[in-house]
Write a structure and sequence with these properties.
This protein is about 75% helix and about 0% strand. The protein contains 13 helices and no strands. It is an all-alpha fold. About 40% of the residues are buried. It has one domain.
Length: about 300
């Protein structure tokens, strides 16, 4: 089977899973519509200010981490400009398909003067380490709260095994050969220690995402432990990302989130929390794009400089 056919197959399977997740979500929302209506009617919106704050800080932090990878390559770009590229590119994840989050972010950098090969390789590395950090946080949250520890242990073992394999130079070179078939700009792979460091520095973003969701839970009157939420939010985001085809993991993330929390706080409250959290993060994506684009426009126009060879 040709490579493009494999990609099409994976995307199609992801789309089917995404549609199934959305169908499950809508069905559950319809079944619990009265309870959800009661939950939202009792919600004090002022209590969500903290949730919005941590959501905004988490996304901005991820944007800055992505931008730092471009700065490490020698490009000179104002920080606000980097984060504005990130937020604007983030809006692409709400388009059906598995690549638009990557394409949107990378193309914003390309428009700013970054060569396409570097823009895409940096974006790929950023997303890989971001969701590796999500897997690490889900594992730690699971084991520390002892919620579904089998999942936590499996994730931790998978991360250790993956890093161990990546540390083997011949295998890493072979991976580089495969990546060159995807993009001609892949000249070298990040060293294992650097890959680990890049993953760890993404952890604060997942802590803030978890805090945002925890505050939202409290606004609904639901008591969820911070470590428990650390596990649930990180894992649901991770699975939502891995299901290629579901725009922004829509339906998939909420289904996983609801399934993991239903036993603790009830299905209707868990579902209300999942929907409210999604609304907060979607709003933050649009708000961040607006704010940082306005700031970037007020800066003195700058063009990214190619790194000195």
């Amino acid at each position: 089977m040709k490579p493009f056919s494999i990609r099409a197959l994976v995307s199609s399977i992801g789309l089917i899973i995404g549609l199934a997740g959305m169908a499950f979500l809508l069905r559950t929302m319809w079944t619990h519509r009265d309870e959800m209506k009661d939950s939202f009617s009792q919600l004090t919106w002022s209590s969500l200010v903290g949730a919005v704050f941590f959501a905004f800080m988490s996304m901005s932090y991820l944007g800055w981490m992505w931008g730092r990878l471009l700065l490490r390559r020698g490009y000179k770009v104002p920080r606000a400009q980097l984060v504005s590229w990130y937020y604007t590119g983030q809006l692409g994840k709400y388009v059906p398909g598995g690549v638009w989050a990557v394409v949107g972010r990378a193309e914003m950098a390309v428009r700013g003067g970054v060569p396409r090969a570097d823009a895409y390789s940096v974006t790929g590395l950023s997303m890989f380490t971001t969701y590796s950090a999500a897997a690490l946080c889900a594992a730690l949250g699971s084991l520390l709260s002892w919620e579904r520890p089998i999942i936590g242990a499996a994730l931790l073992l998978a991360l250790v095994f993956g890093l161990s394999v990546y540390a083997i130079a011949p295998l890493r070179q072979r991976l580089m050969g495969l990546l060159r078939k995807v993009t001609s700009g892949t000249n070298e792979l990040t060293a294992p220690k650097d890959m680990l460091a890049l993953t760890i520095v993404q952890v604060p973003a997942w802590i803030m995402i978890s805090l945002s969701t925890t505050i939202t839970a409290h606004a609904f009157g639901a008591e969820v432990g911070v470590l428990h939420m650390f596990f649930v939010s990180s894992l649901s985001w991770l699975i939502g990302f891995l299901v290629i085809g579901a725009p922004g993991g829509l339906g998939v993330r909420e289904s996983i989130f609801t399934g993991l929390l239903s036993a603790s706080i009830g299905t209707s409250t868990a579902l209300s929390l999942a929907v409210a959290s999604r609304m907060i993060f979607v709003s933050v994506d649009f708000l961040g794009a607006l704010i940082f684009n306005v700031i970037a426009r007020k800066l003195k126009p700058t063009v990214s400089e190619a790194p000195t060879q």
